[in-house]
Amino acid sequence: MFRRISRYINIQGNVAKPLMPPVGIMSISTAATAAAASGAVPKGGEARKDYSMSSGSVDVPVLDQLVGYYVNIQSRKMYYKDFLRIEHQAVRWAFADIRKNSEALAHGLLQTGLRPGQRVLAIQPCNCETFVMQLACAKVGALLAVVPHENISADKLRFYLNEFQPHHLIAREWIVVPEVKQGVLVERNMHFWDMIYNVIPELGLSYPGQRFQWVHSQEFFFLKKVVITDHNMNLLGVTPMRKMLVWGPFSYYEQRLRRLSALLHPDDPILALEDPHPALEDKLHITFSHRNCVNAGFLFGNLMGLKAETRFGVMPNHHTDPVGSIVAPFAALTTGAVLVHIHSDMFTDDMPSTASRNYAWRRWRHF
């Protein structure tokens, strides 16, 4: 866990004595150190306020570092502690695993030409690849735009591509979408790659087996890469995500992410989500910065009293709203809790019947 300089102090003469043990995490800036050294501390027994580089003295601690900073710090302090559980993907990752995978994907994004300030468009269901892509884009300094996939169509795909002008498109070959048949809401598997191929026919210009397959689209000239998170290696014009991973180890002074982090700022945008009720007609998406994401998760974790190895679940398909993409993952990241992604199959017909049978079995054993 992170440690913070004691928030409340008691001034007796020139000696500062802590009254409470340090809790939570807090980034100490050089300006706060200079203010304390110059004697700019409250007189008497008043509590000293925390310092924020953006707001000055504040009552609530503000985290002023990049997302990658907290990923690295937590992976050092809680190396083998569980961090992410996704049962339907058989994922049980510790903090060390999430750092290793996010850095491997970040190096792969840099190798394929992604640079700070560029956009990445993700259209896929809730899975571990979406969260790893979010951390990787934060390390690179790119903006990840996550849009809903339930009602995706060719026109909406073309609209998203023209709106964000992404350098990379992250998708899946098959996605599950809701559909109404004879007045009943059912689910069906949609071949999403077929829709992508109809929108971007230039994908057929490449051949299977290429090491890096680039997109040369006349309509979407800004799009350079189409990446799928499935395991089909023979799709034309797309690259599986697992072929993009660049594993270490890297030298401390030769790592590109370390040199790149010096050029980034906590106020740089890293995530764009669709606003279901936009205030203006042309303002359909909201962007969030490093500072927004980290502080939202940190405050939520403190309010809920989350601690290391505390498990909390996120309902399915919440990766397109701030609850599942910002509050929950960054609360687990800043507090050390375990984030559990619940699969949407929990709400199918088989699962409730199984739950009812288990409930009847427990009742029978009770009597």
Automatic annotation (TrEMBL):
One GO term of the biological process aspect: fatty acid metabolic process
Domain AMP-dependent synthetase/ligase: 89-172
Domain of life: Eukaryota
InterPro entries: AMP-dep_synth/lig_dom (IPR000873)
Signal peptide as annotated in the record: none
GO MF annotations in UniProt: medium-chain fatty acid-CoA ligase activity
Pfam annotation, one family: AMP-binding
Protein known as: AMP-dependent synthetase/ligase domain-containing protein
Organism this protein belongs to: Trypanosoma congolense (strain IL3000)
Record lineage: Eukaryota, Discoba, Euglenozoa, Kinetoplastea, Metakinetoplastina
